[in-house]
Queue: 3 jobs
Job 1
Amino acid sequence: MATLYFFLCFHISFSSLLIVHKTVMYVCSLIIHFFAYLVYSQAEIESTKWPWVSFFKAERQHLSVNYKMEQRSESIKMMCHNALASTHARG
């Protein structure tokens, strides 16, 4: 009987501990999301207040597009080179 009582108390305390753990983790997640939202909204405010922030954002996007176009042109050059090499090898 004492063993059953011990396991019942252990199960109840473990279940309540699990509920508390999940609640704490949920609250921490909400706090982290709230602070992330604050940081994001502050960054948006700063980008409208200071024009150089939006300039750097646009410049970064422009550089990214240039890099992608450069990579694409390199791959096209390689395909043309391979096609020419294969036709020279055949003929």
Job 2
Amino acid sequence: MTSQQRPLLIPSPRTPGPEELPYTPVSGDSLIPISSYPKPTSGMDSNSQIEINENSYPVPGFVRNSSSHRSISSIQSKTSSGHSVREVNFSEMSTRTVRYGSRGADSGGTSKYSVLTFLPRNLFEQFHRIAYIYFLVIAILNQLPQLAVFGREASILPLAFVLFVTAIKDAYEDYRRHRSDKIENNRLAWVLLDDKFQQKKWKDLRVGEIIKVYGNETLPCDMVLLSTSDTTGVAYVQTTNLDGESNLKTRYAKQETQTKNPEKERITGLIKCEKPNRNVYGFQANMDLDGKRISLGPSNVILRGCELRNTDWAIGVAVYAGRETKAMLNNSGAPSKRSRLESRMNREIIFLSIFLVTLCTIVCICHGVWLRRHKDELDLMQSCRTTQSLK
């Protein structure tokens, strides 16, 4: 190819190199390897091994968990002095799908309840309404024969009916969330397996896998860009689902990886990145590739929930998946909504309850004092023959 036919490569925005911004790993950093699968040759399987060496992260008491040669060992999350260490071993990934826990599996959820937690948690949330607590206390007091004013069932049924109807409504709403989460987690992504990109469910994605996203598709995880359809390594993404902004943002693949084709040649590298966090505008990492250390920044990563626009395809390596993604970390779950009127009513009920208790206390004290002073006259009153009990 002559110099006139050679495509013009526009470098991505310059980020400080390792000599200007040295990367000092700490025990809390995550080591995410990059790997693709070479074509099988004699004496070599179509697989690759991605490993995080715990020697770089000395943690007392760390034990490596071994697995068989035909399985994928789970990510071992060990904690020591508040820091986590992650180790990933890949072996014949196309033969078996193994999920390695909520910290690694790309299964996100927005639901509030499970089958076991629905009843206690729903009742706990409902009794945040002070009115329910007030009527519950009245119903309990009415069960005592000395304090009963009306029928025992009559004091329980209204409150039980309201709690039951509200629980049915909350259960239906959470069922719809579960259904939406299932649809989201069962969406398909293109993952590099056996020298070619194959479809895989979002919930089965793993950190370290190389993923290909096509135009107008949603990102299934947080991934560092390796290459794009543009010869300069530029990709355009829309972050409406993440921050509400509709304008397109540019992301860049490093020129060291832009020229590599993971389907035709082996890519072996190591990414040292920060622990999962909620900062959607920040990302600090270094990538060791072919003996070089490449600095990575926010312009080199695309987050889950973003949509690829004006770009035919983009290839990247997953660095955060599932509940570790920035989008899921910022998702606080379905909120328990409270209207302004309800909040004011709670305050009024508290005030009225305090006033009622104070009034009852004063009346009881005055009644006791009156009985003491007129105990000799009580025998004359047919309704107050309690002289013997007061002596």
Job 3
Amino acid sequence: MKNKILIILISVFTINIIYAGCGACNVDNKKAETPMGEFVTSLSKNGTVDGMVLASCGMCNFGMRNKDCSLAIQISDKAYNVKGTHIDDHGDS
């Protein structure tokens, strides 16, 4: 009986750690809001971004469904993951 309880407790804690994310944010954003200002509002046909965009943690600030903090940019009301760099490369997240 003790072994079963121990296995259940270890399983619950392991699953919580795996799916918890970083735990540093109180995520309540459901969708990225359209920013005010002179930001890029659309992508060009070849997919390049020419102009100013918002960059932040996609999970915490743009309502993305990532499992951890990751660098994302926002164009209009849509958020995109940034590939080739990590959020911690640009300061402590």
